[in-house]
């Protein structure tokens, strides 16, 4: 089922088909995106086409330093009319974001809350809906909006919120001879391309994302005011990021963007859901001989701290992840042997034809073979033991049996939960399981009727033999 149409079908079918919806929603797992300064997930200031996973909560605190020797004053037409007082301050913002149904992201923002005597606090809400989700890698589409209240200087003049989130008496709704400025409501559409990196040789696993979109409000308005803009794009914005996996629970993201006015660079490190970041803002404005006098032209250093929590019956730090890596199912054969290959097969003893059994492979496919009492797998009309044909011929799929993490009994991390090995191994029925993810290249399967969050996983140890992993709630609570 196509993911987009599957989502629509789930909405129409409501709660009666929730198990089917869960399966549809899990078909794609893309890169965990960082936190923006004020408006939920994204890059630095611009949104992306993905949303937070269902019932993930992020809380973010950010701020930037401002040090100006003097500021620009303007007249009623928005033209420069002299210079005002200096600014030396640290401006703070905070936001709260919630993901719903793997398709929606909503949140609230509080801007410049350390400036109560200069226009008051500015509050805002924001949201984004995902229309198209990439299948692991590919194109995502979304639309959304931001609404921020205007500052109030109690002088009867209508003001508007700025793109920096600071109250500014010069940034008004109307000017003589200029178009009205309306930045309280900003609507946008955005597309993001997810690409899996070249994870080869010494390179760590990494993903690359490219984002572009168009918006109104803060993405566009104010472009006629010289003190507010230098070069603007009439509402277009774009950005890119490289997401590097570090260990099993950390991602380092390096990003650049153009938000419609400013070129920004940033980096963010997510360690098991705890995020710290630093950004360099407005680097596209060159330093004049007399120094900058506008807050909006001045390059700025910004910092950010954020925490991502999954709500799965209790609060658990949410680990970041790269997009799912699918191991190839096709067996790579060695160099061609000589023209003639002679295989000598010992004559089987009476009763050595073996019993007919079904094996569930790690690809989710079922194959039918014969097993002897001695444990040999017989294939073909001549009942040839498969061990005599290896490694030239083998079952398809990737198995955990010889992996170091499996041998040493390491737990599996998935969607903010830790799963541990159960005692014993055995067969499973391929018709009763579905693939929902992967761990270090090996597929993770659950029962077809399982709901999120999952209680157990099945991992293929070798063809036909599976290991069960279970979620141990007591251990998580103790941590």
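Q: What amino acid sequence fits the structure above?
A:
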């Amino acid at each position: 089922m196509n993911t987009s149409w599957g989502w629509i079908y789930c909405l129409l079918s409501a709660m009666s088909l929730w198990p089917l919806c869960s399966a549809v929603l899990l078909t794609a797992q893309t890169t965990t995106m960082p936190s923006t300064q004020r408006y939920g997930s994204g890059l630095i200031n611009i949104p992306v086409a993905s949303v937070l996973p269902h019932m993930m909560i992020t809380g973010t605190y950010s701020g930037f330093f401002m040090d100006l020797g003097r500021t620009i004053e303007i007249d009623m037409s928005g033209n420069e009319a002299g210079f005002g007082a200096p600014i030396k301050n640290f401006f703070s913002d905070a936001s709260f974001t919630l993901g719903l149904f793997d398709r929606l992201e909503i949140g609230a923002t509080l801007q410049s809350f350390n400036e109560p005597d200069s226009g008051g606090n500015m509050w805002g809400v924001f949201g984004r809906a995902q229309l198209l989700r990439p299948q692991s890698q590919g194109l995502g589409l979304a639309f959304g909006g931001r609404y921020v209240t205007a500052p109030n200087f109690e002088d009867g003049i209508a003001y508007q919120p700025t793109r920096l989130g600071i109250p500014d008496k010069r940034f008004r709704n109307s000017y003589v001879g200029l178009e009205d400025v309306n930045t309280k409501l900003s609507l946008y559409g955005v597309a993001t391309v997810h690409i899996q990196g070249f994870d080869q040789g010494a390179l760590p696993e990494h993903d690359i994302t490219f984002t572009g979109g168009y918006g109104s409000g803060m993405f566009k308005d104010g472009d006629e005011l010289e003190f507010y803009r230098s070069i603007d794009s009439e509402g277009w914005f774009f950005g890119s990021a490289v997401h590097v996996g570090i260990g099993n629970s950390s991602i380092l993201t390096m990003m650049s963007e153009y938000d419609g006015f400013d070129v920004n660079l940033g980096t963010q490190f997510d360690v098991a859901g705890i995020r710290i970041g630093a950004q360099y803002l407005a680097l596209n404005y060159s330093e004049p001989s007399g120094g900058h006098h506008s807050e909006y032209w001045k390059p700025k250093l910004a910092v950010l701290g954020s925490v991502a929590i999954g709500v799965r019956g209790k609060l658990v730090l949410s680990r970041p992840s790269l997009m799912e890596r699918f191991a190839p199912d096709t067996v790579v054969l060695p160099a061609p042997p000589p023209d003639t290959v002679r295989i000598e097969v010992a004559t089987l003893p009476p009763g050595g034809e073996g019993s007919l059994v079904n094996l569930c492979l790690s690809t989710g496919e079922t194959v039918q073979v014969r097993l002897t009492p001695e444990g040999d797998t017989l294939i073909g009309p001549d009942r040839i033991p498969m061990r005599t044909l290896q490694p030239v011929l083998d079952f398809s799929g990737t198995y955990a049996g010889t992996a170091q993490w499996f041998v040493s009994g390491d737990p599996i991390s998935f969607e903010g939960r830790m799963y541990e090995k159960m005692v014993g191994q055995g067969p499973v029925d391929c018709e009763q399981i579905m693939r929902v993810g992967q761990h270090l290249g090996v597929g993770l399967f659950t029962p077809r009727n399982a709901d999120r969050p999952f209680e157990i996983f099945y991992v293929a140890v070798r063809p036909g033999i599976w290991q069960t992993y279970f979620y141990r709630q007591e251990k998580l609570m103790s941590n």
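Q: And what stands out in the fold?
A: Residues 326-479 form one domain.
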